[in-house]
UniProtKB/TrEMBL annotation, chain A:
Function, in words: Part of the ABC transporter FtsEX involved in cellular division. Has ATPase activity. Essential for cell division and viability.
Catalytic reactions of this protein: ATP + H2O = ADP + phosphate + H(+)
Database matches in InterPro entries: AAA+_ATPase, ABC_transporter-like_ATP-bd, ABC_transporter-like_CS, ACT-like_dom_sf, MetN_ABC, MetN_ABC_transporter-like, NIL_domain, P-loop_NTPase
Database matches in Pfam families: ABC_tran, NIL
Gene Ontology CC annotation, any one: plasma membrane
Domain ABC transporter: 2-241
Gene3D superfamilies in UniProt: 3.30.70.260, P-loop containing nucleotide triphosphate hydrolases (3.40.50.300)
Gene Ontology terms for molecular function: ATP binding; ATP hydrolysis activity
Protein name per Swiss-Prot or TrEMBL: ATP-binding cassette domain-containing protein
Example of a GO biological process term: amino acid transport
Superkingdom of the source species: Bacteria
Automatic annotation (TrEMBL), chain B:
Protein name from the UniProt record: ABC transporter permease
Pfam families, sorted: BPD_transp_1
Membrane-spanning segments: 29-51, 63-87, 157-179, 199-219
Keyword Membrane on entry: yes
Organism: Ligilactobacillus ubinensis
Residue ranges of every copy of the ABC transmembrane type-1 domain listed in the record: 25-219
Primary location class: membrane
């Protein structure tokens, strides 16, 4: 569907060259949701802007449906662009147009009649759940509603590909989830290929099938979301994954673990990580039964599914108090069950 | 002589020939409206040219931008009264006369169009670049972007710009009136000042203020109507 070969983009600035994208090779399959994650300045936007010719590569190739598009210009390029929808962080709607008129904008660039345009725009407004706000102006809409208009507009010309550049970054968590749900729906209903850029792993986990991690213009890791979430290789990837599934990131639990370590210097704080089916095993009750001398208290637990729903990741923070021997044995037992254990020590 | 001096002389309205005043007011309005229409067209085109040729890498386009920019700056800095004199020959050829409301039009246009062109350029610059990019990404041509994005999205600024321009044009018509273009300016100058008839000067002033207020009101209303932000 989309193939990027040795794609490089270098900007000439007053401060010298900026290597925004260097030597990126990627393949996006038809119908999949491809996530690109990375910190600010990693080159994500520059990369996807080359997919629809908003940016011209310095070198390398962009191939979409077998056609090279990086060297197209004029009418040919515009025709390709019509088949690639794009949504933006700041929605980029025309404030001078109503919801319906905004959705009609891309249709006005084709040779549909006014009647057909209106029908189609109405249908799309209903698809994104704005059937009752069609004559509102963007200034009268909430952020989530604006992005729905953006999505409807991007879908107007029945694109093969939808590009989303931080489409949920300006929205609150609840609205983000609603928009992600809508995108998921659209991906299923319309069999659309979606390329989604984000700096939030949450978005990737909810939506993406495949993920590429970018740093300094390079793709440092890529793979199926299930694979990357369970076995991240690069440090940056681990940071992203942990931020999403590891509750130690929250200040609360850090404070509590500190407290507990001080109060019970003999006790042991352990993080258990479960993958897949392990999540459903009665690990805790088995431990309690096997080691009656141990006191086990649960501090926090979390469970997450990734987009394919087949992969589940769980983590559990427990405290073990009791004879040193038993604690040792307990850890061994957990390892036998192939549960990953990490002993937590005081940071100081 | 008593009639023409002192503060009270401004209020001797029996000296005012009201039909004359009305005719002069219509002349002023006619000059302003005709000039505004022409200025709007040329200003829009020049402003568009300035906007579209900005930060380009091609030397040809750069040169074009420089020429248009220089033209705009020069005509904007020539005082109006000098511009009229400077354009006398040109006006004679174009209009066939150098007096009357018609003859005022060329110099009015030459002084106001560059001014409006700058306002147009600024209005276009203020259009959200993201929206233009979105239109580009949708496959819009340059022209489609101009008339579907640039102009509608900057319409409030374009209208308030033409309102400001129209009001300064009213001032210019008065100056042009002093050297024979007709209208309220000429009335105030010849029938008022030169004939020691202060009441006429005052009446003409009030008439001009009212015309300015009407233009401002129309402009404000129009902006409010199109601004959906
Ligand atoms: N037009 C440009 N001219 C010069 N440098 C640019 C240009 N566009 C982007 N860059 C630089 O390229 C690098 C990558 O930018 P890019 O916008 O692609 O990052 P990003 O990953 O999308 O970041 P963010 O998450 O903040 O959107 C940055 O260092 C940026 O300064
Ligand atoms: Mg970006």
């Amino acid at each position: 569907m989309i193939e990027l070969k040795d794609l490089t983009k270098t900007f000439q600035t007053d401060d010298g060259e900026v290597h925004a994208v260097s030597d990126v090779n990627l393949t996006v399959n038809k119908g999949e949701v491809f996530g690109i994650v990375g910190f600010s300045g990693a080159g994500k936007s520059t990369l996807v802007r080359m997919l629809n010719g908003l940016e011209t590569p310095t070198s390398g190739e962009v191939i979409i449906n077998g056609t090279r598009i990086d060297n197209l210009g004029g009418t040919q390029l515009r025709e390709k662009r019509r088949k690639i929808g794009m949504i933006f962080q700041h929605f980029n709607l025309l404030w001078s147009r109503t919801v319906l008129q905004n959705i009609m904008f891309p249709l006005e660039l084709t040779n549909l009649t006014k009647n057909e345009r209106e029908k189609k725009a109405q249908h799309l407004a209903e698809l994104v759940g704005l059937g009752d706000r069609m004559h509102a102006y963007p200034s009268q809409l909430s952020g989530g509603q604006k992005q729905r208009v953006g999505i409807a507009r991007a879908l107007a010309n029945d694109p093969d590909i939808l590009i989303s550049d931080e489409a949920t970054s300006a929205l609150d968590p609840q609205t983000t989830d609603e928009v992600l749900e809508l995108l998921e729906d659209i991906n299923k209903k319309l069999k659309l290929t979606i390329v989604i850029i984000t700096h939030e792993m949450h978005v990737i986990r909810r939506l993406a099938d495949t993920v590429a991690v970018m740093e300094d213009g390079k793709v440092i890791e890529k793979g199926s979301v299930a694979e990357v979430f369970t076995h991240p290789k690069e440090d940056l990837t681990k940071r992203f994954v942990n931020a999403e599934i590891d509750p130690t990131q929250t200040v609360d639990i850090r404070e509590i673990t500190k407290d507990l370590l001080q109060k019970y210097p003999d006790g042991l704080l352990v993080k258990l990580a479960f993958h897949g089916d392990q999540v459903q095993q009665p690990v805790v009750s088995e431990v309690i039964r096997k080691f009656p001398n141990l006191q086990l208290s649960i501090l926090e637990g979390a469970i997450h599914q990734v987009a394919d729903k087949a992969t589940t990741i769980g983590s559990l923070y427990i405290q073990l108090l009791g004879p040193k021997d038993d604690i040792e044995k307990c850890l061994q037992f957990l390892q036998e069950l192939r549960v990953e254990t990490v002993v937590i020590q005081d940071e100081q | 002589m008593n009639n023409s001096t002192g503060f009270a002389s401004y209020f001797q309205f029996k000296n005012v020939n009201w039909p004359n005043l009305e005719a002069a007011a219509w002349e002023t309005i006619w000059m302003t409206v005709v000039a505004v229409v022409i200025v709007a067209i040329f200003g829009l085109l020049l402003g568009l040219l300035l906007f579209e040729t900005r930060n380009s890498n091609s030397p040809l386009i750069k040169a074009l931008n420089w020429i248009v920019s220089a033209f705009v700056n020069i005509f904007r800095s020539i005082p109006f009264i000098i511009l009229i004199v400077l354009l006398l020959n040109f006006t004679q050829i174009l209009v066939g006369s150098i007096t009357g409301p018609k003859a005022a039009i060329p110099s009015l246009v030459f002084s106001a169009a560059p001014f409006y062109a700058r306002l147009v350029e600024i209005a276009f610059r203020e259009v959200d670049a993201g929206v233009i990019e979105a239109a580009t990404a949708m496959g819009a041509t340059r022209w489609q972007i101009i008339y579907k994005v640039l102009i509608p999205e900057s319409l409030p600024a374009l209208i308030s710009g033409i309102t400001v321009t129209a009001i300064s044009l009213i001032g210019y018509t008065a100056m042009a009136g002093a050297i024979g273009a007709g209208g309220l300016g000429q009335l105030a100058y010849t029938d008022g000042f030169q004939s020691y008839n202060n009441a006429i000067t005052l009446a003409a002033t009030v008439a001009i203020v009212i015309i300015v207020m009407i233009f401002q009101l129309i402009g404000d209303r129009a902006v409010k109507h199109v601004d959906k932000r």
